[in-house]
Amino acid sequence: MELTSITPDVAGLRALGHPTRLKMLGMLRSEGPATATTLATRLGINTGQTSYHLRQLAQHGFIVDERERGDGRDRWWKAAHQSTRTAPEPADPADREAFDAYIRAVAMIYAQNIQDAVREGPLLPKAWREASTFSDYHVRVTAKHAEALTTRMHELFMELREDADDDPDAADFVFQFQAFPRPGHLGGEEA
């Protein structure tokens, strides 16, 4: 299956800068179509809030109606794409603020995923516990080399998407890949 992605404009980044919306989009991508009621239950929020967030996601092209489901009473939603990519960082400070809010929301979701994985770890079968890792690697590289490495990792992860589609022993396995200069070591100067 070919991976489809969306590169949002600044307005789309603003919409995704809300952690609840970002989490809802992730759920629709990983768990499939759902109604506002189903998502509200999973997220522990009311259906009015959920419906509002779904309309915002739809307005910016992140989700669409799942027309094959529903009975006129329930509206089903599905992700329009499997991935969100970002364009280069905007130069305009107002646009940069939307970009930064989106990145902060992504970081919050990733941190929650790691916390959930740690909490569930002891409940996993031994083989899955042994396949999991919480590792970091501190290496010295140039910015050009770092970009080349992250590109190679992205390509590797995209190759893995199709490896186990039909294997009954396969399970959803999350690779959260973050790469950044060690905080506090570059002084925060402009590039």
UniProtKB/TrEMBL annotation:
It comes from the Bacteria. GO terms for molecular function: DNA-binding transcription factor activity. Residues 11-93 form the HTH arsR-type domain. InterPro entries: ArsR-like_HTH, HTH_ArsR_DNA-bd_dom, WH-like_DNA-bd_sf, WH_DNA-bd_sf. Gene3D superfamilies: Winged helix-like DNA-binding domain superfamily/Winged helix DNA-binding domain. This is Helix-turn-helix transcriptional regulator. The lineage of its organism: Bacteria, Bacillati, Actinomycetota, Actinomycetes, Propionibacteriales.
